[in-house]
């Protein structure tokens, strides 16, 4: 799959380097994390003192901070504690003039014993918290001893880490202020703050403890936690008119400016802007807590004005992200928007998000640039997303399908109409094929023969050099064009890639690719569509290495007639997806059945239509309702992938996958297992990269045995090793045989599962790495090594699909005799009508081909798909044109019939495979029976006793 996009960003759980018990730690082993203590701010002098991280008194998250309620909410850790009332003089010298209570922690036998409080529900990931504690000591020691502030973090499976905050040398002379700061990159199941440190036998004295986050003001703590009305502002102080009120740094420092960089950077609107500075991680940035201000199942749009600033960085990706925490402390990061931002100008960052459930916490923040680069923010606004007006179906003027728009294709006039791209030489020669390539022939039908002349391009010094034409005035918006040609290369040291490319203004569009060897004419085919007016459109053929001659013959570019193709596919579908059925009625009450009314209704087509789902989707009952009604298979987006189930070595998370499996099981949904491994290096989690060969082999075996033993019999299919045509991570490190061994071991552990290969760009002609021919070679090689490959997965992430090109790939792959599934279909167009047409192409081609046994969509709900403008249902649950087309096809592929029995008590019809209900009326009595039509060539006779 070509992602990860778009919708969510993976995070690694924070883990301490030390796995030792707390009692074995020494103070010297602790290192202070790289966080910045918030500066103070004088709100009376906004212009002179704008560099700050907060402008108002923040709320203390420590309850009973001054022990005025005794030890309420405090706990002594393996020692004793009590509270000394104000003015008691319990410890002479240190407290005689103090008119307040304080705690005494005594009977301490280890330096780590102290006083603690659970603050889990009062902290958020990414916020920078400051601590200030008034502490003292008493006991038999010389000079000074140290008091330390620490966080104990408990994660899933009871894994515990310790985060050092700060320490202070303290004597018996008086009270000392212990100060520090901390930030959590992710939320643990439990966060416990405590004070520790003096030498054993010494008493620890605590007068007060204060922990604050500058963005959590008195206003924030007192505002209602229920969702706000639509008219209320979701982002407070969006333009920094009140300095940094309600804003804070996420693991870094934030600063407010009226200008910076010697007045070269100024706000584009308003008086001020903010910078997130001292960033040490890519996720550091500026944030605001919006808990309670957004409602579930409502779409929101974020608009931010941003830029970057830093040494040696002129541009970087900036992302808008929403962090949410559920009531059970599970966390989710929702990607809202991403943009390439420069240090020269302010750029608008815009995107949408939706919450399926009501989180206990929600924080929106900016992140992304490399450490050391500042993120500048001029404004950030979140509003309810406006519903765009429904689009009109595009109607290209004077569209003439099947007509070639290339000038002088047959080269009757030499090279007239052509020009060389780059400093190369073109000439016309003879000896090319006279027939048009097969994929074009399938689209065009009977067509004139080619001339046998071709363009020879020599003296090529760059790979992009080749023959070209400008076709700007001939291309019509929203039409889907098919590209077809014969290509060949001159003498070369090995196979060469040749491609048809289009330059659409400053954008490059892939029109098809093929791998060509010496002395071979090869068909090249592809497609494209333009959806916005271009000033210049140029087509050119390119690709072989410099110095290699290129030959091109019979280049055709023509708009395809999809409706004519659909009519052909309907006829094909009738042949392979239907069966003749004879209902034979009998029984003691049958009497004379001649003319008995019969009504047959198909309840469900047995052909698998499924969709990708994610754990957060099933929190939305509207999503669930559509999914269960309209799909009978599922695949999990990320929840079964190795980087999700074992983000950290030995720390397993199957909770999300279990919940999705239970949901599917309750609703009779079959499930594909995606995926056991993913061969593309960028998808492999960090801890695996650190393993040596032997350790990696053990990890692979553990992954196989752990996953397939745990879920034995629960997944009907497995994508064993995803995208082997586009990656070789495990093979490069463990040897060629590892791929086959993965299949063998998976089959041994779960013999009931069908094991698939799975890859992309197999069906569209635009990637030589995964052409049908290469895919066939790959599968045969696995089988030669004994791999029990049981199915072929074609992902189906496709742009402007053309039926004959898709069908050609299916025909080639079908020679292997394996079931073919489209496993991740999505099509993308801003215009819903065009998107609907693209989706219909893919579904009809799949349903009409005898080798295809199932289709899985890669999602259907807006904001929960890997590609934009690919959804069937808008964010708030409204069916769009693509969704309507899907339902219309599902309805078309259900058979209904009615009539009367013949003189033999029989009723015949031809229907799609699947489950049926038949209703007959005898003597004013209605009788209903069910039956199933399976695949088969012969007529199916079903006896029904009435």
From TrEMBL:
PANTHER family noted in UniProt: ENDO-1,4-BETA-XYLANASE A-LIKE (PTHR31490:SF86), GLYCOSYL HYDROLASE (PTHR31490)
Gene Ontology molecular function: endo-1,4-beta-xylanase activity
Biological process annotations from GO: xylan catabolic process
Domain GH10: 603-889
Pfam families in UniProt: CBM_4_9, Glyco_hydro_10
Protein name in the entry: Uncharacterized protein LOC104216227 isoform X1
Cross-referenced InterPro entries: CenC_carb-bd, Galactose-bd-like_sf, GH, GH10, GH10_dom
Database matches in SMART domains: Glyco_10
Family of the protein in this entry: Belongs to the glycosyl hydrolase 10 (cellulase F) family.
Residue intervals passing through the bilayer: none
Basic and acidic residues bias spans: 41-51
